[in-house]
Design goal:
The protein is mostly helical and 542 residues long. It contains 26 helices and six strands. Helix 8 runs antiparallel to helix 9 and helix 11 packs parallel to helix 13.
């Protein structure tokens, strides 16, 4: 290298070094400024705005005045006890019209049959239901299935797929302008799979917009994302309804360990992360010898890894790959009885690994059964790393993308002291100086669900069809129940900042204010006045 080149390289290195050194004090000053903001108290009006914005999907007309009269602390405590809040009759009427929401999975599969059930009926391996109305549905769907098989034989897969899409498009147009109740009834008879997914999605939006128990709904969304499953994965199209209803919603203000147990044994989670196929390696070898052409079976680590990385300890929680393998061994035999027919949780002892396991330094003796997995859940639910991980996620959702470590530490201490009482942890956070501080005020970007639900609440919109709102949310990058990755949707607000996402938000706002969204109407003459009276933050920040 010649002298001039060496001089240029040296000069470049000195410049870079100078920049790095100069950024050090700037970063330190920024950290000090941020810390100072978390000590700066909001005024009373800002506290009301902030509490409503963070603990609900947004203020509706009259909320600001109501919370001001009640007082922020009392309102927060009220929201922490949702059973004490009378629910909105309009919401209850909407949910009552959605038959799928209350059915057991077995009844759901019977009344809204899966392709596997229809195949069994069409081939004569399963009897038609006795109920005349349901029998007519089965006959119609079975005939459609037979016609599809014939088209595949004569026209091939590609032409059949085109025909299928054409049928779906015509059905979509037909039901697009219907009310939720009308559409549910039509889909139940013509496209049951769409009915199940559609009602689940619409119910989420109706709850977010209409419920008086707003914090409960925000937490239901938070915890579903924490224990995320993917609606579009096979049997989970039918298993997700019961999963959210029975494994998530009852526990959002209870003890973390109870929700952890409920999700671990849920057929939806077992199917999503493939644990239902996990058997000991010895059992897998026996299956292979008995049926050489059968699908290979053995130890599956998917659930074990996500259980520790995403559900409990966190990626830096102190576990090793060996721990993942040992946890996977503990959960062998946790399976589902006929998942495509609404099967329940089942433990199959003959495929369970009965050897000794060591998980995070704790020995689980040889000879165990289903209690091996239960012991793992007990270890993880009470682990200090879990307390820190869960506390930080809650603080990131409700306080700031980078919450103060001192607050996270206090929340984690409460988690451990209270045996994972989530309400107790939330009380520590919501009564903290940091929560009602300038450091938390209007610093988080709303998710698409929060933005759309908040806009509908703030504008006092009437809604008899939530599908367009669901489509708008999907256009912004958050199709509900359809996050394929186990991470769920991010709690980091800045993850939602993109040019395409922001454009979709603006398009939705324009369409809403112009009454150009089917099934949703606002009173444009009152809109400006209502927006002023809510006292709410804007639709983008919370």
């Amino acid at each position: 290298m010649n002298f001039e080149r060496r001089l240029q390289t040296k000069t470049f290195r000195l410049v870079i070094a100078g920049l790095v050194l100069s950024l050090g004090p700037l970063a330190a000053k920024k950290a000090l400024d941020t810390a100072a903001k978390f000590r700066q108290k909001l005024n009373k009006q800002q506290q009301v705005e902030h509490a409503i914005s963070r603990l609900s999907f947004g203020a509706k007309p009259g909320d600001f005045e109501a919370v001001s009269r009640m007082g922020v602390k009392k309102w927060i405590e009220h929201q922490l006890n949702p059973s004490s809040i009378a629910e909105n009759p309009a919401l209850e009427a909407k949910l009552a019209a959605m038959r799928t929401l209350t059915l057991s999975t077995e009844d759901l599969v019977t009344q809204y049959p899966t392709p596997q059930v229809l195949t069994a009926v069409a081939s004569g391996r399963m009897n038609m239901p006795e109920d005349p109305e349901l029998r007519a549905v089965y006959e119609r769907l079975s005939e459609r299935y037979k016609s599809r098989i014939e088209r595949k034989k004569t026209k091939g897969e590609e032409e059949e797929e085109v025909a299928k899409k054409g049928i779906e498009e015509r059905l979509r147009r037909r039901v697009g302008s219907m009310t939720t109740e009308e559409r549910s009834e039509v889909l139940r008879k013509t496209a049951p799979q769409q009915a199940v997914a559609g009602e689940l999605t619409e119910a989420k939006i109706y709850r977010a917009v209409l419920s008086e128990r707003q914090l409960n709904e925000v937490l239901a969304d938070f915890w579903f994302n924490h224990f995320n499953i993917y609606l579009e994965k096979g049997a989970d199209k039918w298993l997700t309804t019961a999963y959210e209803r029975d494994a998530i919603r009852p526990h959002v203000l209870g003890h973390f360990k109870d929700m952890l147990r409920a999700t671990a044994a849920s057929p939806a989670m077992l199917f999503y992360l493939d644990n239902w196929t996990s058997v000991s390696n010895e059992a897998g070898d026996k299956i292979k010898r008995a049926a050489p052409k059968a699908r290979a079976r053995g130890l599956n680590e998917n659930y074990a890894r996500e259980l520790m990385e995403l559900h409990t300890l966190g990626v830096d929680g102190g576990y090793t790959q060996k721990d993942v393998q040992e946890v996977a061994r503990c959960f062998t035999g946790w399976t589902i009885e006929e998942p495509n027919r609404g099967g329940k949780f089942r433990f199959v002892e003959r495929v369970h690994d009965k050897g000794e396991k060591i998980v995070l330094g704790v020995t689980i003796p040889a000879g165990g059964g289903v209690e091996d997995g239960q012991k793992v859940l007990e270890i993880l639910a009470s682990h200090p790393s879990t307390a820190k991980f869960i506390s930080r996620k809650l603080a990131q959702r409700f306080v700031a993308d980078e919450p103060p470590q001192s607050l996270v530490d206090r929340m984690a201490a409460s988690f451990l002291k209270s045996d994972g009482d989530l309400k107790a942890v939330l009380r520590v956070m919501l009564s903290s100086q940091e929560f009602l501080s300038a450091g938390a005020y209007k610093v988080k970007m709303k998710s698409p669900l929060e933005m759309v639900a908040g806009a509908l609440r703030a504008s006092g919109a009437s809604m008899d069809n939530a599908q367009p709102a669901a489509q708008a949310i999907a256009n912004m990058g958050q199709p509900l129940y359809r996050k394929a990755e186990p991470t769920g949707y991010s709690n980091n607000g800045e993850e939602w900042v993109s040019s395409a996402g922001l454009l979709a938000r603006m398009n939705f706002a324009v369409a809403l204010s112009s009454n150009k969204i089917g099934g949703i109407k606002i009173d444009k003459d009152r809109y400006a006045e209502q927006a002023r009276n809510t006292g709410a933050p804007d639709w983008q920040r919370r």
